[in-house]
Design brief:
This is Thioredoxin domain-containing protein. InterPro entries: Thioredoxin-like_sf, Thioredoxin_domain. By secondary structure, the chain is an alpha+beta fold. It contains four helices and four strands. The chain folds into two domains: 35 residues; 82 residues, Glutaredoxin, CATH 3.40.30.10. It has a four-stranded mixed beta sheet with strand order 2-1-3-4. The longest helix is centred in the N-terminal third of the chain and has 33 residues.
Length: 125
């Protein structure tokens, strides 16, 4: 009987911190996303693309989703605006570049989900 009690206490001592950590991390992530007010974000994402690019057309719904949700995002056609594309060193498209006060903070090459792009605004990947 004593061994069973010791085993239960050991299990609780091991499992409790793990479960509490997971629970707090999950709640923190939910609150973090619920409290995001897109218009209050410090920067914007530049979505570099072109009309002839199939991968860009595939990434367009993600751009539209963020735009419709009020996130500061701007679509930049590399053919119409080569100067801006050159400024940010765009060599392949699609590219999502997070810019604050004209300075690049991070970027994602290729397609990305809306949740991954939202993490860009918070400085994550």
């Amino acid at each position: 009987m004593q061994k069973v009690i010791v085993a239960c206490v050991a299990l609780i001592c091991f499992a409790a911190p793990v479960l509490l950590t997971l629970a707090s991390y999950t709640n923190e992530r939910v609150l973090e996303e619920d409290n995001v007010r897109p218009r209050d974000l410090p920067g914007k994402v530049l979505f570099f693309s072109a009309n002839w690019c199939p991968a860009c057309r595939h990434a367009d719904p993600t751009y539209q989703e963020l735009r419709n949700a009020g996130y500061p995002i701007r679509k930049v056609d590399v053919d119409s605006n080569p100067t801006l594309a050159q400024k940010y060193g765009i060599s392949s498209i699609p590219q999502f570049v997070y810019v604050v006060d004209g300075h690049e903070k991070s970027r994602i090459s290729g397609g990305a989900s809306a949740s991954r792009l939202k993490r860009l605004y918070r400085g994550g990947w």
